[in-house]
Amino acid sequence: MLAVFLIALFGLVIIGVPIAFSLVGTGFFMMLTQAINRPSAWSVFALAQKFVNGTDSVPLLAIPFFMIAGEIMTRGGISRRIVDFAYSVLGRFKGGLGYVGILASMIFAGVSGSAVADTTAVGSMMLPIMEGAGYDKPKSTGIICAAGCIGPIIPPSTQMIFYGVCAEVSVSALFLGGIVPGILIGMGLMIAWFFHVRKRNYPVGPKTSLSGILKATKEAFLAICLPVFIILCITTGVATATETAALAVLYALIVSGLVYREFKIKEWPHLMINAMKSTAVMMFVVGSAQVAAYMVTTCAIPQLLAKAILSMTHSPITFMILVNVLLILVGCVMDSGPAIMILTPILLPIAKSFGLDPIYFGVVMVANLCIGLATPPVGNVLYCGVSLSKVKLSDLIKASLPFIGVMYLVLLLITMFPELILFVPKMMG
Fold first, then answer.
1. Which of 14, 116, 151, 347 lies most in the core, judged by the most C-beta atoms within 10 Å?
2. Residue ranges making up the domain that contains 258
């Protein structure tokens, strides 16, 4: 049945069938194969029920709310203020615009939770400035794209919500578990950028006075407070992840509309239509993934794989390395959301058999697949970078490789030391 699953899924994807329809088709083919030997297994109504049940989840409501909050903050001048704040702090150093881009992406990650939104918002402002200052265009685009991958790792994160729903674990704990890995990836990218700029004649920005830093901090303070607000709501138990997402929308409306007064109410209908379209696509994929996951579970594929892997190794670390290699390959050809929905029902039971914490496993999985957003051939942030800077995709891929390598080194670090992920969730209870 594993062969049927792989052949059906990747066969449909290769011939150009949309991922949601490929997942439903895979479930259908698996049921058809079962029904050949066991006619009682045939039940199209069961597939339809699983599709509906897959989308009937309260935590999934957080996705459109966080999307709307991020969109409001972006339209309300938040990204510009975040960039100005980052520049006031780091612009004075050689190659400072690269550090500014990384820091701005880390802060904006706590606003959008999306790699593409992060790359677009920060890149649209930073790349023209970096080009005008004489920075290497492919390298500049590469560092912005790599930093954009932090978006789904630092909370809030759509991908972690997907995993939380599939794994039936706390989304709040997943959010907390992503804080340290996100910071480590940002620090790793800054170190990589430091070694890049030291041999190049990049300009040094003007030193910002203390009053200038304080002014920029004051302007961006409310924007920076949004991720802090989200984390505090979750950790203190004031609200669930879904309720926090709704509160984030209210916060964004107040800050962008009433404080900064850059978000206009006439933009609301267009914003809501875009959010509804994006949410509808996501929910269709979620429901389709649940159909495939149901058939995977029914056919006992996780148990068969667990038995096979346990016969080869009893080491949790070896298992996690094998999982990371698999996820790296999957991340090259599949978007992170569908990959999480497909692979979680298969891999998580095996991880549990090794005694691994589901929170740790989920954060590693999400981090790996989010780095995959910057790897060809299906690297969404790379195509976003190409559209922003107009560089050749081949040049961008070559320029991004050192930064992608650093991110995978951080991935190896959090894989080998689970406490880097679990420390904050355990501390917050």
1. 151
2. 53-282+297-427
